[in-house]
Design goal:
The chain is of the alpha+beta class. 20% of the residues lie in helices and 19% in strands. The chain folds into two domains: 139 residues, Endonuclease/exonuclease/phosphatase (Deoxyribonuclease I, Chain A); 68 residues, no CATH class. It contains four helices and eleven strands, in the order βαβαββββββββαβα. β6 and β7 form a beta hairpin. α1 packs across α2.
Length: 243
C-alpha cells in the first residue's frame, strides 16, 4: 500500500477562527498575523486548494488551531467531508500541532485509529542537557507538544505518525535578550558550578536557556577559577547581578 504524506506549516491557522470554540471568522475580515492583509475567505481557499491538489492521504498540520473542533471544521468544510482530524493541545500555547487522515481513500480503519497524548509521556517533558559542555545543564521543553497518532490501516497493519514543529527561537530585541538572560541566570543558579549562560537563537524543536555561540565573547561567565567578564549591554541590571 502506498501512502502520500503532507507535512505543512500552515502559519497561524488559528487566526481563521472566532474566539472560543467558534466558527470561522467573517469571510472579509483581514487576518492579524503572518499573512498580512489577506482576508479569511481567501486564506481558507488558498490552503484547501493546495491540499486538494496534492491529494495526500495524511496531513500533519503545523501551527494549527487550539482545538480539534476547529481543525475538524476546516477539513470537513473546505477540504472534504471524509477527513478525520486529531490535535495535540499544549497548555499555555497556541498554534498546536494536528493531523488529518482521508477516510475516503479506503486505506484507513478510522474506528481503530487513536491518538496518544504527548502531555502524558515523560519522553516529551522538560529535560536537561549540557549542550555546550560548559558544566551547566541547559533546560529544554517543547513549546508545542508533538502530535502522536497511531493509525490503523485496512488489512491490520498500523502506522505511527509523530508530527513535530522544528523551529528556531530567535532573540530580536533587548527586552527579549534580557528575558533569556534572566532565565539563564536561574539555570546557572541551580548548577553546582556558578556560571552564567545566555539565551540561544540556534535552531531546535525546543526552547532553551543557553548562551549563543555567536555572542559567547560578550556573555558573563564566572567559573570555579574566578574568571569573569561583563554581561551584554542589552541585559537588565537585575539579571546581570545574578552572575
Amino acid at each position: 500500500m502506498q501512502l502520500r504524506l503532507l507535512l505543512w506549516n500552515m502559519e497561524w491557522l488559528n487566526d481563521l477562527f472566532a474566539a472560543g470554540n467558534g466558527p470561522f471568522r467573517p469571510d472579509g475580515e483581514k487576518l492579524a498575523y503572518g499573512t498580512g492583509s489577506v482576508a479569511v475567505r481567501k486564506r481558507r481557499t488558498d490552503l484547501s486548494s493546495v491540499i486538494r491538489e496534492v491529494e495526500p492521504d495524511i496531513v500533519v498540520v503545523v501551527e494549527g488551531p487550539n482545538r480539534n473542533e476547529e481543525l475538524d471544521l476546516f477539513f470537513r468544510t473546505d477540504v472534504g467531508a471524509e477527513w478525520r482530524t486529531f490535535l495535540q493541545p499544549t497548555s499555555g500555547s497556541a498554534q498546536c500541532i494536528g493531523a488529518a487522515i482521508n477516510i475516503a481513500t479506503g486505506k484507513f480503519d478510522a474506528a481503530a485509529t487513536r491518538t496518544i497524548d504527548s502531555a502524558a509521556s515523560p519522553a516529551f517533558g522538560e529535560f536537561p542537557w549540557d549542550t555546550d559542555a560548559d558544566g551547566v545543564d541547559e533546560h529544554y521543553r517543547f513549546e508545542r507538544l508533538p502530535v502522536n497518532v497511531d493509525i490503523a490501516l485496512v488489512g491490520g497493519k498500523r502506522l505511527r505518525v509523530l508530527g513535530l514543529h522544528l523551529k528556531s527561537k530567535a532573540i530580536f530585541d533587548a527586552c527579549e535578550w534580557s528575558k533569556w538572560w534572566s532565565m539563564s541566570a536561574a539555570t546557572a543558579a541551580r548548577s553546582s558550578r556558578r556560571r552564567c549562560a545566555c539565551g540561544s537563537n540556534s535552531s531546535s524543536l525546543t526552547s532553551r536557556t543557553r548562551r549563543p555561540r555567536a555572542r559567547r565573547s560578550s556573555c558573563a561567565a564566572t567559573s570555579t577559577t574566578g574568571r569573569a567578564s561583563t554581561p551584554p549591554r542589552s541585559c537588565s541590571s537585575a539579571a546581570a547581578s545574578r552572575c
